[in-house]
Each structure stands twice: as structure tokens, then as C-alpha cells.
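Loading example: each entry is read as two labelled lines plus one structure line.
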Amino acid sequence: MMYEHFDNTVKGIKDKLSQDPSGINARKKYVLELSRLGRKLYTKNETIAWCGVTAPFDLLSSMGVTSCFVEFVGAMLASTQTAGFFFEDAEDAGFATDSCAYHRAVMGAVLKNAMPEPDFIIGTSSPCTAGLAVMENFANQYKKDFFILNVPQNYSKDAIRFLSNQIEELTHFVSAHTKEPLSKEKLGMALENFNQSSKLLRDIYDLAKTKPSPVDNRLLRDFGVVMTLLMGTREGIDICQAFKDELNQRIKTSRHHASKEKTRLMWIQNRIQYPFPMDKMLDDLGAKIVIDELNTVTWEPMDPDNPFESIAKRMISIPFSMDTSKRIKNMQTLALDYQIDGAINPCHWGCRQGTGARGLVSKGMRDIDIPVLNLEIDCVDSRNLARGQIETRVEAFMEMLS
Amino acid sequence: MNKKIGFTCAYTPVPLIEAAGFFPYRILPETKAPDQAGHLLHDNLCPHVKKVLDRALENDLPDLEGMVFINSCDTMRRLADAWQVARPDDKIILIDLPSGMNRLSLDFLSKEYERLSRTLFKWNDQTLEPEIISEKIKEKIFQWNLLADSIKKIEEKMTNDFFPGYASGLQQIINTAATESIDQALAMAKSKIEPENPCKSLTAPVFVFGNLLFDPKVYDLFEEWNVQVVGTDFCTSSRFVTRIQTGPDDNIFRSLAHSYLKQTPCARTMDTTIPGSIAQRIVERAKKSNAKGVIGFTLKFCDPYLARIPMIRQALQKESIPFLMLEGDCTEGSMGQQQTRIEAFTEMLEV
């Protein structure tokens, strides 16, 4: 079922792109590559690893491993409105309804045998405890080897060395499964690709800061988190280049999508994954999300001569790996750089990591005079969605900002 | 005056606190302070952390010289974050706790415990030679291990026979070690090691596990409901008093790291070579304690435990061991609400 879904998406997008060969179509190219990844995950004879969100996907792809974080699948099930089917299985098996629905959806899919069986599992302690717990459940369910990357919550020399040594050990773990040693040349190329993509990402985010911003409410949704799946590859560079070209063209042609920009907004953490007309609602209210919290480059360029330490520093630098005060500082910097008027925090039900800091985030933004709208919502499970209430609160917030 | 160091997690080595000249004070989630923590964090967090934060916000705490936090789960991390806002003048330290138990994790945790020790001595304005510090820690570990041994003996007695009031007495000893001192707890253990009440017979021997069950009165309630607790696995029960294995030439911090990581783990700590080993461990402990059934008691919104309940349930089912799963907050009242379910469960065990 899932293979067909991805395969049809790949064919459909390729058709559309062939009808407009000179167009930039950044978003379509991005979805095309993600669908290709999805298709690979459901293809036999691939070496598959299910991972935590902050796993080093560039390193894994250089070792011939098709890898993905499981929350990506949870989001995809929600966006295709099939998640409900899987929630019930997970809940019947005893997974609490208070838990994160990204994880409940994929656990349901595992129990329903709708997930590709991995060759091994790589858990990461960042961003969340629940994510690591679901990885252990995967390993237990599939009876597959399990590796954990512990991401310390500080940037000390000991912490970096600890993570760097674990990453090196991970390469031995992977080699033991693929029967292929790590190729320094291939890893060097992956890191070079990663660096080129990172440079382009910085350009993209700089362009998004322009006033009025060339982005619209959809263009860069969840971009920073998901792009990490592709950043060690040539395709990742092409996609980043396409987004940069698209934003430049929009600026050049003054085609500022959803050009009403009465209000500039920041979206905190992840977007709502199931069909919900938030983007349109904001368009109608003249509000534009110019920055998603996770669309940011917090790392230095990777050093191919010192790959494990570089990757370790990158993993620790991600705001979700740090304490909340550093996350807030990052958000404050973004708020000032993007000249936002307000922020929306969808407090994803069941998320202790991100939503757990709701009050602290509000306070941190208030300290720089940025109001925050806290929406109590489940971003993946739409069964208890109070749509009218959400709409009213968004409207009232926009009214207040204007 | 007793200078106290606050802490909240069972992975905090109490001997390090006492060696630095402080008294331990585990902040238990027991308070009449109003619910305010949700404003600073979120309401969907475990009641343990929220109530501890409520105590901090309401100043329902003794004077503390500093706070030790352990990065054991998301909610504990958020508590450390919120503490800095709630009590900005407090000295705090956050210790990173690996989730796995391999060699690298042990090396790292031993360095983290060393950092903790250095910080505690600094907080107490003590600059001592490393050998003297090491000796002080060893002395405290010696006392701690005596306590751990006494507690083990009490537990063994509990497993074999039912003595009314014995389980709650054990919890009082453990709470004393957490909130007063090792010496006081040890004295208490010596006086309570022989049961005060004669042995009786109950028909529902049960193994109880979960995250937090610290109120001695709850164990008395269990007895009223005909539950004989023959074994426990909580971070507030004997798991907290981990015996520290150390030899004369061992690096003391490595011994601590080894003992704490390899102890009966909290659900958040995993043995990657046996994914889901918590389920097998619960089954084995239930069998070893001759329990007829198992009661799981976890706090609402506790991801590490709630995510493992399905595999625990499955493992118990496979062994035909009846299982009752309860969720609640940290109060005696929340356990009281479960009376009917617990009584029904014990009746079923007696059939």
C-alpha cells in the first residue's frame, strides 16, 4: 500500500515537472525526492534503518543505508488522513492516548505490519525521551539490533568527545550489518554535499528575511527538519538550489506570494500535519509565517578531516538538544532577524520536550515584546480537533496584533 | 545548621552529597502548594515534576545550598529549565545521564559524577586534595552500602512472610535516606529490621512497580485491601538505595557510574543488547518474589514508563501473570480512588 502511494506520487510529480521543464518548482522537486526516499524505504533489498530525529543521515547515506526518522512517517500518515486507522491499533495495544501522536501513529503502523521491516534501529536521545522509547519498541517488536546515540545537553569538550566516539562506534555497528567498511571518500563527499546544502540553506533563510518576505505560508513548512534526510546527497543540493532560485525569482519579479503581509509570524516547532486550512486562514487574515523555528542553521561547516567531531557538534547545536534557555535565545534571535510581530506555538498534545516548555517560551518571547499564541492542539491526531475554537483564537490573535 | 542539597532523581548519588559536607534533600512531590507549574511549563507533564516545581514556586522547601538535576527524561530537563526562572538565585547543576549502558556511557557518566563532586565541594567552599576527597566519598559509600544491605534484608523478609506495617516501615527508612541522612536511615533500619508485628497470612502476594510510590501510607492502604507487597520496583523504593560496588583500587567515580547505570534501571535507561528487557525483568522479579499478580502504578504523562507498558503487559500475559495497570498523580488520594479496582484484582487472585 505505502509503496504504491509513494510510487504514484513520484510518477505524478514527474509528469507535472515534465510539463514545465523550465520552471523552478522547488516544492515539487522537494516532495519528489522525499517520495523517492519513501519508495526506497518500502523497497526490498535496501538496507533500512529507522532512526531518531537527530541521527546523522548524511553519514548513513554515505554507508549505503536508507534511513529516516519515524516521526516523518507519522506526519505522512496524518497528511494522508490514514493515521486514525493506526492510532486505534496502538491504543488497543496499550499505548496511552496522552502520548505523542507521531509515535502512536507509527507504532500502530508497526503493529499493523504497515512499516517496512528495518535491518537495524538507531535511537537518539535528542530531541525527546518518547522518541527513544518508541525506538526501543521498534527494536523489541522487530527483534533487530539497536544502537543509541546519547546526545548530551551541553557543549563541553567531554560531551563532544562522548558523542563523537559514539558516532565512530556507530560506523562499526553499521558496517557489521552492511558488511562494508566506512569509505572515508564517500563520507567526505557526503559531508561536502552537506556543507553545500547548509550554505544554500543559509542563503534561503536570508532571502526569507526580506521585507516583504518572498515566502508564503506553505513554501518552507517543516523544511529544516525534513531536509536533514537529504542533505548529504547531490539531490539535497539541487533542492536547496531550487528553493534559493525560487525565492530570488519571486523577489526579482515582485511576486510575493500571499503578498498581503500585514503581520509577520514565527511558527514554533512543527506544523499541523493533517489537512487543516491554517495556511489559508492566515493568508485571508493577511498574516505570513516568515520563519519556522526549526528553519535555521546552527552548525559550523563539517570538517571531512574530523568527521565524527563535526557531526557531534552539529547534533548538539540543534536547539532541541540544548536547554530551553538556549532554545529561547535562538528564537529571540530569529524573531529579531525576521522582524516578526508575533508567534504561534502549536502545543502538540503529548509532547513533553517542546510543548513542555510552553510557559518558558511565552515568557522568553514576551521579554522581547513578541506575543505568542499558544494553541492547544494535537498536530497529528485530528480526532479531538476543536476547529472552531482554534479559528476563533487565531482570528483574535491577529486582531490583537493588527 | 544542616546544609541541604536538593535533588529529584534516583540517579543522584547521595554519598557524593554527604561527602561534600551536605545533607541530602530529595524533593518529594508532596505539597499543599497551589497548582502553578503548568503556567511555567505545561499542564500535560508528569505530576511529579509539576508538584516539585509547585513547591519551588511556593517556597515550600527548606533552605537549600544548591540543586542537583539529572537529565533523565524530557520532563526532568524542563524542571531544570523552569527552576532557573522560578528560583534564579539557586545554584544548580544538571548531570547528563546516558540512556545506554555501554563502555562509552560508563566513561561519560563517571566524568559527570566527578564534575558533580567537584561542584559540590566548591559549593561548600572546600578545596581538598583529591585523595582526601576520595577517602571522604569512600567513607560515605561504606555507610550507604550498609544501608543498602539492611534494606535488602528487610525486602527478603517481606518476600517470604507478611508482617503488617513492615512495607510502610521500609518506605519510611528509604524516605529518611532521601531527605535526612544516611546515618539516620541506617539507625532506623537497624531498629526496624526485626518486624514489630507478628507474621500473618494474606492471600494476595503482589509485585508492584512503576515510577514513584513514596508515601508509606499507601503501603498501609494496600494491606487494608488485602494486598501483600512482596516486591517493589520504584525509583522511590529500594532501587533508590543502590549498592555501590567498589574495590580498594577502583576509580571511585567509575564505580559510582557502573553501579548506578547497572542498577535496576528506570524505564528510561536501556540495555540495547536486549531491547524491551524491562518487561522480562518485571516478569522475573514477580516470579522470584512468588507474586500471584503484578500491579503497575505510573504517573500520568510519564513517557518512559507508559511507552513500555504494552511490552510489559504482553510479557506478563505470556507467563499468565495477572496484571493491573493504574495511573495517577502522586497523592494518597489518587491511590484511594483505585481501591475498588485493587480489591477486585486481589479477589480475582484469591480465586
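Chain B touches chain A through 48 residues (CB under 8 Å).
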